[in-house]
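ok so for the tutorial part 2 we go from a plain amino acid sequence to predicted structure tokens. step 1 is just haveing the sequence, like this:
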Amino acid sequence: MKKIVIVVLVMLLVLVAAPWGIGRLAEKRVNAGLDKLVEEAPYLTIVERKWTGGWFRSEQEVTFEVFGAWIDAMNPKNVLAGGPTAGEAVETGAAPEHTSQETAAQELARRQQSAAPGTEAAVEEPAAAEVPAEPAAAPAKPIRFTVRNEILHGPVLWPASLGLARVNTKLVLSDEIRKQLVDYFGTDEPARISSRVGFFGGGSTRFYGDGRTIQAKGETGVLAYDDFELELGYSGDFDEIDVDGSWPKLEYSDPNSGERLLISGMSLEGESERIVGDLYDSEFKFEIDQTLFAGLDRTETTVEDILYAVETWEDDGFFDMTARVGTGQVRNPAFEELKLDLKEVHYDFTLRHLHAETLNKLISTWKEAYTKPVATVAEVEAVVMTPVKEHGLALLRHDPEFSIDRIGVVTADGDGIIKGVLRLPGVTEADLAAGAMGLLDKLVADFNIEIAQSLLEKIPNGATGAGLAVDQGFAKREGEKLVSHIEFRKGELKVNGKPMPIPGFGPPPPAQDGYPAEEAPPQE
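step 2 — the prediction. this is what the tokens look like for a chain of 524 residues:
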């Protein structure tokens, strides 16, 4: 009996004492997580944080600043000015060429005096120091927000998990904003955030909210949506990240106007693993089962199976990324009138052969730029473009390529598709310095276009346009399809093997010795 009592007492002591010790450890881990957050998102800075410790529960208040180092450049007056004001020029001793205070007569008199130096000025110009300076732009207010974290100490976390702590996060709002949220949503917390801090690093964060039906005062439109949830899991150093979320239904309808928007079956899932620095081997997919829209004319457009998918990977020191954007069946009255059955739409692209080490340096330099104070739009452009100039040529030296894997449609009457690739082989510093024309000379493009004749006939004037394209050499017929092979190399454009003029760049190369350009004899 005595042993049982001792065991019970020891267990009670552990259960009671453990939360206090775990609370101290949780404080370190939560603060380390915040430091890692601003490291990964450098446009955020922490201007203040307070921790109030407790036995089973602690509180933390954190104030963030957004784009703090760039706040002066974001001042609307500085953005519109685009540079120093006249007042600033006078203040620094630089005489403005022509201030807004000068009249046309004063300017004319100044030029006449300059042309005949011994003559007396007809109009006396004010001294530079007397030119009224434009009022200085008021300092931009920092963009800040504060969150309050309620930290529940582990090891047992509600509702049914283990960990160092559970962190419930709330945005600190003014009474006025909180009242507006309650009036509209029926709660001051339409979305909630809860995180779990794991024992051995990492954890998870859950964004979620309850479904609601909302009708603003004096409005006939109704917004209704189901419960939504997004869970983000991560390792302690963010080397591994996974995401899983869903939102079954979101709908707005106005019986008076006939307007309606329905989005159903939204989902997001993906995972990523760090390759090096800011580069990840990843695969993410966002999907919507159906979207329906009806405007004031009450005609409905529906789009099914919307997809946005991104995949990135590393292969032998090079980084590739592909994006697929597309839909399934698309219906609307205009298509029905044309008797056009649009089954699929695709936009698929791939960026290949990016030197991973150089790309990571470019991204890291951009991230660092967010921490550098800038005061003007010109300085913003400089910190953004300097990394491009520094690392862009290094990327191009490895001959990356941009591939159009598929831009096209699938219909009951046939398909229309574009495929091709763009390259910039052998780019030098001189080409970059020459700007667009220097790069155009190095551009290599190769595209193939195929369109079913029966599909063209469903489009107004499509058959007529196809005939003109064939007559002018821009397309040729192959069975039941119109095809076109477009090449661009060394400044020369060819369509189906024949040189073609480039709009704005003059005619095609001249023929040789009386031969048509496309039949010119081979060079010896």
